[in-house]
Design a protein that fits this description.
The structure is a homodimer. Helices cover 37% and strands 14% of the residues of chain A. By secondary structure, chain A is α/β, with parallel strands linked by helices. In chain A, α1 runs antiparallel to α7 and α7 packs across α8.
Chain lengths: 386, 386
């Protein structure tokens, strides 16, 4: 099978990730921070080291401001519900995932906030002028995806961050697509809140993610509970990461994520980014010239985090994904990808799009096979073979 | 090392749990419910089977009412914040963990709910008469731990459930201590909401847990996000488990939990409960006769889920745990165990308690060694050897 669904979750994982997790589970998976015995300390130390590694990876100066979550969705909800107050105004791009859109739309529906969604161009790229004009005195938060999970389009994060900071608004970045192959620097990009999953481009396991909370951010937790600290308090401790991290952490998952970060550092984030871009560029070139095909992604590096989204004019995206899987053993995703706003922007709300997302472990030979396959499907316009 | 901190997290895990997780990570860890290709379907199927297994284990008739969470804390917060409305009254036992106490106390502080904490006897056992008298017309929720994480005391769950149902209140059970060795039947026990961790008595990995939401419960989610379903909706789908499960699930963790449930079923929950009780009973007998020791746990089966909590009159609990670890290689936990209310009940708020919590993999020989060790410490009253 050729796995090209890395935007959903990266697969396979580096061997070191799995062996680090197995070793943790077998040898020292006690409860981190909940005891002083050797095994608990070993688990606690592993979590601390992972926290430092991930923090360094995003240029987060104080590792204690990095909170582990179960996935990016929890991180995004923690940020959104944690910083917004009644009557706040929020600006978000038109390419946000449901993990941003649904909390914001729910708050808007309940008349707690007002919301401006930026219209993008046909690729979903935002207009910085439109952003500038969208600020109001009560704008507390700007939310942007690092890149779209539908077509891979990259947002001008540093520029948005600068604008948000100069207007006194907080800046939340959803790094679900791009973290691991695109350099993220919370300092130089003026990011106040960074949400990321561990299991996509970072190549860690599912069940991991995190939220960076910048020093200027006043945040309330989404939940309260045992923190292994200040047990005598009947309220949540007010310092990070304990404020946000309630209950037992996913120690083996976090250990796996740390090992994945090591793998990326050793491989080189630049090399990973370049490799993914070469595959995307070739795929884009190979299929965009076919008849009856519409490609929704831009091929340029800096404009695409690693996705080619397309449709045949004569077919539903799900049909194409089905054929690719069943007949050619190529795993891609079709449909709406939990991002209806993005599809509204791209004009694909009705039938979704076929999304091909290569990862570090894909090869150029695989991409050539995929191009040939899509050419073949293009020729056999009628779907008798299904 | 003798690991006796199973109330924090069970260790070691059954071999089958680790091998199931490794196999998942290596062979089919795609994104469950986020695609139609073979690998995604395999992951989705594994999650569905796990859901059915866990549901059956607790006699949950509709597996779709079982939602996976990252830990028990998320499940408890989802239940508490999801069902309570302004002006509601809540009754909880005096032995609740901070994962129950902190959300409830926060809601009470913010004047959203009123709260009655039941006083217990010196072991924390509640008085059903006091419970009966605590109901008010606006009592929406009764919360009880299945058993205390401090001293193992069991609560009369079925009786509390019956009383809550007859008064029209919902019943939330925190099964963090006991699930896996104590039989839980949501039907016969009148449980409306059951929260549990996967990594304690259930012997699954950290990063797993769940919340059962009964058919009479109207619940709001703690977060919203991608569900892989109804992607076109800008609001959260209203059916379970999607309402509660936002973002990518911890597939390898859930697969590990399912394997752990298999292990428990094959071993027999009764055998596990009996084994743990034999160890607790012997330990209780062995140390309670020592001079200058106070034991806070009851030894009887049905009164103890698997914990012996004690103090030497002349020492801080942390000192004893430290000596047990460093000199005798015995891992236990001391301090407040994230449950200050329970310590207030037991009269141990100042110095906490030493908690010994045997698990399925502990042996009687280990317990005999622990008893001898505690005898030795008892004789060497002065702590020169530290």
């Amino acid at each position: 099978m050729i796995y090209l669904d890395n935007a959903a979750t990266s697969w396979p994982k580096p061997d070191c990730v799995i062996s680090a997790m197995t070793q943790c589970l077998k040898e020292y998976c006690a409860n981190p921070g909940r005891g002083s015995h050797g095994l608990s300390s070993a688990a606690g130390l592993a979590v601390s080291r992972a926290r430092e590694k991930v923090a360094e990876f995003f240029n987060i100066k104080d590792p204690l401001r990095l909170c582990f979550t179960k996935n990016a969705t929890e991180a995004l909800n923690t940020a959104i519900y944690g910083v917004l107050k009644p009557h706040d105004h929020v600006i978000a791009t038109g390419m946000e995932h449901n993990s941003v859109l649904r909390p914001l739309k729910t708050l808007e529906r309940d008349r707690k906030i007002s919301l401006t969604l930026l219209k993008g161009n046909r690729f979903g790229e935002i207009d910085l002028g439109e952003l500038a004009q969208s600020f109001r005195p009560e704008t507390r938060l700007v939310v942007s995806t690092l890149s779209s999970n539908v077509n891979g389009i990259m947002m001008p994060i540093a520029e948005i961050g600068e604008m948000a900071r100069s207007r006194g608004a907080l800046f939340l970045v959803d790094a679900s697509q791009g973290a691991g192959s695109v350099l993220i620097d919370v300092e130089s990009m003026n990011i106040d809140l960074l949400a990321f999953p561990g299991h996509k481009g970072l190549m860690g396991p599912q069940g991991t993610g995190g939220l960076y909370v910048g020093p200027d951010v006043d945040i309330k937790p989404l939940m309260q509970g045992g923190t292994g600290s200040n047990s005598e308090l009947i309220y949540q401790p007010e310092y990070l990461p304990d404020l946000i991290e309630s209950g037992t952490l996913n120690t083996p998952g976090i250990v796996g994520l740390a090992s994945a970060i090591d793998f990326i550092r050793e491989t080189g984030i630049d090399n990973i980014g370049k490799h993914r871009h070469r595959l995307v560029e070739r795929l884009h070139e190979g299929i965009s010239r076919l008849e009856g095909i519409t490609v929704y992604s831009r091929p340029e590096k800096g404009k695409n985090s690693g996705i080619v989204a397309f449709n045949f004019d004569w077919a539903d995206s799900n049909e194409i994904a089905y054929i690719l899987d069943k007949k050619y053993n190529i795993a891609v995703r079709a449909g709406l990808h939990c991002a209806p706003a993005a599809h509204a922007t791209l004009g694909t709300l009705r039938r979704g799009a076929v999304r091909i997302s290569p990862g570090w472990f894909n090869t150029m030979d695989e991409i050539e096979y995929v191009i040939k396959t899509i050419e073949e499907i293009s020729r056999q316009k009628n779907l008798q073979f299904v």
